[in-house]
Amino acid sequence: MATVVGAGQSAASGTEAEAGRTTRLQIRKIDVADVIECIQMGVRDFSRAPKYGLFFGAVYAFGGLLILWIAFSIGYYYLAYPLIMGFALLAPFGAAGTYEISRRLETGEPLSWSGVLGAVWNRAGKELGWLALVSLFTFIIWLDLAVFLFLMFYGMDVPTLEQMFTRIFTTTYGLMFVVVGNVLGAMIALFVFSFTSVSPPLIVDRNIDFVTAMSTSVRAVIANPRAMLAWAVVIGANLAISFVTLFLALLVIFPVLGHATWHLYRKVIV
Length: 270
Known about the structure:
The protein has helices spanning about 15-20, 30-50, 50-75, 80-85, 90-95, 95-105, 115-155, 160-170, 170-195, 200-205, 210-225, 225-245, 250-270; strands spanning about 5-10, 25-30. It is mainly alpha-helical and about 270 residues long. A two-stranded antiparallel sheet has the order 1-2. α3 packs across α13 (about 250-270). The protein is globular and about 60 Å long. The termini are close together.
């Protein structure tokens, strides 16, 4: 973790803005051991402020269940899986409150609901909103692709849920549908991961524009491919556990990953 590489520039503010100066952000080299340490620190932060973490985990879990309920209630059950996978793309923004909690625990500032929620909105609301909008646009593209794939493999004759599962596990084209869909989903997820791996906590922590935050995040991923791939695998595995438990595991997994993301940002960005 000794090597430091350039990673773009942050937005100037206050006196620096008037002087036309910017502070150049730099990226540290990290390894898989650092990712493991960040997860351990995320668990520690959650244990120090569990009620806040459980709140954000519950809100995100409720959102996932709501999406599933809507998909099945209006008859679009075949879009339930891509909807949930796409919903996961918005997790870095739903976890914004956990970044502020970790920041306050790190600096020794007191925790309060108004302090945590207000600080995130006042300090990063606009830029975080723009970053979320980019991810939302990607989410819409992913849903369009999901619908296109479904029509390509199944046509306009929508099968029942039982028929769909039967075809998936007993026919070649059904298996191909699953493989192609997951490959495309993974590509889009990695794309979103590249510009959101550290950009949300970076925006919450510093006075920086969302474009610089996105480019810094991409450069951080490029500079640390092995460690960041390990982090992406950890996120994917934990989300899979959450889906299997019908989002119940998100009550703990979501805030722990949010806290861990904060510490990863602190390790990667100088």
